[in-house]
Amino acid sequence: MLRRRQNNRSRDLAIALREMGTGAQASLWPQLSQLRLPLYLFVGALDAKFVAIAHDMLTTAQLTTLKIFADCGHNIHLEAPEAYVKAVLLGLLHHSERGNVL
């Protein structure tokens, strides 16, 4: 992954960050308390910023489950793919066992 990232061009990365980064996204915080669907928050323990955001979301949104992956940073799906897939599947299984359809 690191080798692949080293081949990226600075100009293209800057454009991607400006157009698609979290700063470009509209804030949906006011709507979180109205959410009636299960919300699964997956964060890496080494990503302090997003762990803090997830804890804030946990107190704001209903039906929220927080899973913190040990020894992972921001890219948990790449850093711990098996644990990530297992967590996603468990969430889907729990959701379907409650009679909910995705």
What separation lies between the terminal Cα atoms?
32 Å
Strand order of the largest sheet: 1-2
Indicate the radius of gyration in whole angstroms.
Answer: 16 Å
Give average pLDDT, whole number.
Answer: 86
Estimate what percentage of residues fall within beta strands.
Answer: 5-15%
As a percent range, the share of helical residues equals 40-55%
SSE succession: HHHEHEHH
Record field, number of beta strands:
2
- Low confidence ranges: none
- Biggest sheet features: 2 strands, parallel
Number of helices: 6
Shape descriptor reads globular
Summing up helix and strand content along with how strands pair, one would put the structural category as mainly alpha
Task: Describe this structure in a few short sentences.
By secondary structure, this protein is mostly helical. It has six helices and two strands.
What does this structure look like?
It is a single chain. The chain has 102 residues and is mainly α. The protein has a domain at 37-97. The protein has six helices and two strands, in the order αααβαβαα. It has a two-stranded parallel sheet.
